[in-house]
Amino acid sequence: MNALISVSDKTGVVEFATALQTLGAKIFSTGGTASLLAASGVAVTEVAELTGFPEMLDGRVKTLHPRVHGGLLARRDLPAHMNALESHGIAPIDLLVVNLYPFEATVAKAGCTLEDAIENIDIGGPAMVRSAAKNWKDVTVITDASQYQAVLAELRAGGTVTRKTRFSLAVTAFNRVSQYDGAISDYLSSVQEDGGQALFPGQANGRFVKLQDLRYGENPHQQAAYYRDLNPAPGSLVSAVQLQGKQLSYNNIADADAAWECVKGFETPACVIVKHANPCGVAIAADALEAYTKAFKTDPTSAFGGIIAFNREVDAAAAEAVARQFVEVVMAPGFSDAALSVFKSKANLRVLRIALPPGGSSAWEQGRNAVDVKRVGSGLLMQVADNHELLLADVKVVTRLQPTAAQFQDLMFAWKVAKYVKSNAIVFCAGGMTTGVGAGQMSRVDSARIAGIKARNAGLSLRDSVVASDAFFPFRDGLDVVLDAGANCVIQPGGSMRDDEVIAAANERAVAMVFTGVRHFRH
Question: Rg for the chain (alpha carbons), in Å?
Answer without folding.
Answer: 30
